[in-house]
Amino acid sequence: MATAAELTVKSAEIDPIDVSRKELYVEDTWREPFRQLRQHAPIQWVPESHFGPYWSVSTYKPIQHIEALPKLFSSSWEYGGISIAFDPEKPLENEVRQPMFIAMDPPHHTAQRRTVAPSFGPSEVAEMKAEVQQRTAALLDTLPIGETFDWVEKVSIELTTGMLAKLFDFPWEERHKLTEWSDFGGDIELIRDPDGLILRNAKLQEMGMAFAALWQQRLNAPGKDLISVMLQSEAMKDMSPEEFIGNLILLIVGGNDTTRNSMSAYAYGLSQFPDERAKLEADPSLIPNAVQEIIRWQTPLAHMRRTVMEDTDMFGPMMKKGDKVVLWYISANRDEEIFDDGEAIKVDRHNARRHLSFGYGIHRCVGARVAELQLHTLLEEMAKRRLRVNVVGEPDRVPACFVHGYKHLPVQLSYY
Predict the structure, then answer these.
(1) CA-CA distance, 86 to 287, in Å (whole number)?
(2) How do residues 331-383 score in pLDDT, each as one tens digit?
(3) What is the CA radius of gyration of the chain?
(4) 187-220 burial, b for 16+ CB within 10 Å, e for fewer?
(5) Phi and psi dihedrals of 127, rounded to 5?
(6) Is the pTM of this model over 0.90?
(7) What number of other Cβ atoms are within 10 A of residue 324's Cβ?
(8) 261: closest CA among 145, 136, 155?
(9) CATH number of 4-415
């Protein structure tokens, strides 16, 4: 972590740049604004945005330090939670607060995370490997060669939704609902529209009712799935309906979007860097490192948000109690001080694992190993078949500054 001497950043030298605008992401034009911020305003006060005023933090070391100080920079839902969307002082019309353990501070966060974390431990993930390999191999063997199809729909969504269904022991024939609920749960642009928020609330209520029914079933016949783990724990067995729904959103969005959009980035990103793709095809031993590099390059969640708990001038600028602080992982993962030529994919990048895509500190993604397993398995099974993904059209991107991903990606497969 950065030392005290390294933390002070220069004052902003440019006018505020609002990088929360959805146009930057749907049009894929976010790189230059963030480069400007890293160079001229690594910590900048943005007085106006669709989401209200916020501090924009765009470089690696301050983000890492903020993540390591949860008492000073809170994640709690009571103060706005983990995304730029909410303001505790100005509740949105039709807003329903949904606590979740990633949007809690210790000790509540600690107890709930400890409940869920063992389900994603090394031995548990190792037990998943054979089943993940089987599902991935079976899916790849159904894909057409030389014909155009949507990689997001046919591969990324199918594999990640299948994994979620297994983790929750969710009815397999209804697994598509998990994708739908995830999309609504992570859509912060929908939150800005009162009617959209009503629709989102309805979808998440539908999700809560479906999982409440599963909860009742598991009371009498618990298994090893995440619902059974929660209901058998002291920290989570008596959750309110709002907290239950909140934690479901966390686990479903976290388990879905990170992996889904990294799988899509594998297809899209390597097509943008054919020399790196060729390097990976020639040397499959690079797959573990390439997985980390793809996750860094994509950064499936563009930001996390914290709230200042007391006035501080730790970084130079004075941050006031109650201020919203937005940590732009998507920019930190391209910080020139950490990653040489960070805009490029380098499958053999020596420090790819230093990415912040999974966060840092007490809130580091609890399911990171599962995401890595799924992506590693996909690359491994593609290599076994000597299959290459050829992008044949521009992707349709998610129009938002939180989930950084792809809605559609037209591709064709070929052999190499």
Answers:
(1) 38
(2) 999 999 999 999 999 999 999 999 999 999 988 888 899 999 999 999 999 99
(3) 21
(4) bbbbbeeeeebeebbebbeebbebbeebbeebee
(5) -70, -25
(6) yes
(7) 23
(8) 155
(9) 1.10.630.10
